[in-house]
Amino acid sequence: MDIKLHKQATTTPKIRAEIQAAPASISDSELARQYGVGDSTIRRWRYRDDVYDRSHTRHNLLATLTTEQEEVLIAARAFLRLGLDDLLIVAREFLNPRLSRSGLHRMLKRREVPTLAELARQDAGGDETPRHKPFKDYEPGYVHIDIKHLPQMPDEQQKRYLYVAIDRATRWVYLEIRSSQSAKDARAFMKQVEEKAPFTIQTVLTDNGKSFTDRFTRAGERTPSGQHPFDQECQTHGIEHRLIKPGRPQTNGMVERFNGRISDVLTTRRYASGEDLEQTLKRYCWLYNHHIPQKALHHQSPVAAMKEWQAKRPALFTKRVVNHPGPDMYT
């Protein structure tokens, strides 16, 4: 019989059986002296029903993922082309802070998730006709803006709204949570985007909602009056405000896809309060900008892409782009 003992074992199954068979008249200390072991070793084996080592693997593993969490990570690998270390950053930040690198690797192997090299080969040998027409090449300063409804938290009296801005060229994201989706709030958000963006904003693309335009009314489509607060904010700073064509939300698909990632974040954990939710979204935004490589950026993060753009086209920028260990700030 193949007997496996722990490396530090001081007794064999035969000695353990002798300890268990010893009469009650012999004390633990006497048995310890007889076998040259400590009293604790005698107590461990004397009152056992077996003589074999038990597994030291803990029963409540803290590094496991739920099936839903595994699906989120598999989707992140496929969509963002994240390497193991980058995927681990996302997993620890938003799904399970105790997840180990080896545990994540085992999950990917068990679920037969393709490696980055295999995904690259699939990309090269896939359909010749793309599923959608890609965006033309743009320089930093073409910004998509959208509003997403957020779930109401237990401590909140009303729902809140997530405002998201994303630059087409660098995928840089800025977001805020606001209490309404009014034109006033949309204008205030636009002011913050102008202040936070390290580049000069040339063009903004939004949907046709009342938050952004008065082009559409109950009577139908009309020429924008120029009096809408969001339009006025853009005009003040010489920013061209474009609207997506009616019935073609895919035109604003870049920000819609980012909102899809936000939806994944919202559904993979419980939030104790509105503040908890807001801090999580801010952490995700920072992680996205500084650490998550984008396939469209040749596997660079948005901040790395901005630094590259600034090196070759400094006139496009109003602030110096640097990597920061905390929330996005530019000098």
UniProtKB/TrEMBL annotation:
<dbReference type="InterPro" id="IPR001584">
    <property type="entry name" value="Integrase_cat-core"/>
</dbReference>
<dbReference type="InterPro" id="IPR047656">
    <property type="entry name" value="IS481-like_transpos"/>
</dbReference>
<dbReference type="InterPro" id="IPR036397">
    <property type="entry name" value="RNaseH_sf"/>
</dbReference>
<dbReference type="Pfam" id="PF00665">
    <property type="entry name" value="rve"/>
</dbReference>
<dbReference type="GO" id="GO:0015074">
    <property type="term" value="P:DNA integration"/>
</dbReference>
<protein>
    <submittedName>
        <fullName>IS481 family transposase</fullName>
    </submittedName>
</protein>
<feature type="domain" description="Integrase catalytic">
    <location>
        <begin position="136"/>
        <end position="310"/>
    </location>
</feature>
<dbReference type="InterPro" id="IPR039537">
    <property type="entry name" value="Retrotran_Ty1/copia-like"/>
</dbReference>
<dbReference type="GO" id="GO:0003676">
    <property type="term" value="F:nucleic acid binding"/>
</dbReference>
<dbReference type="InterPro" id="IPR012337">
    <property type="entry name" value="RNaseH-like_sf"/>
</dbReference>
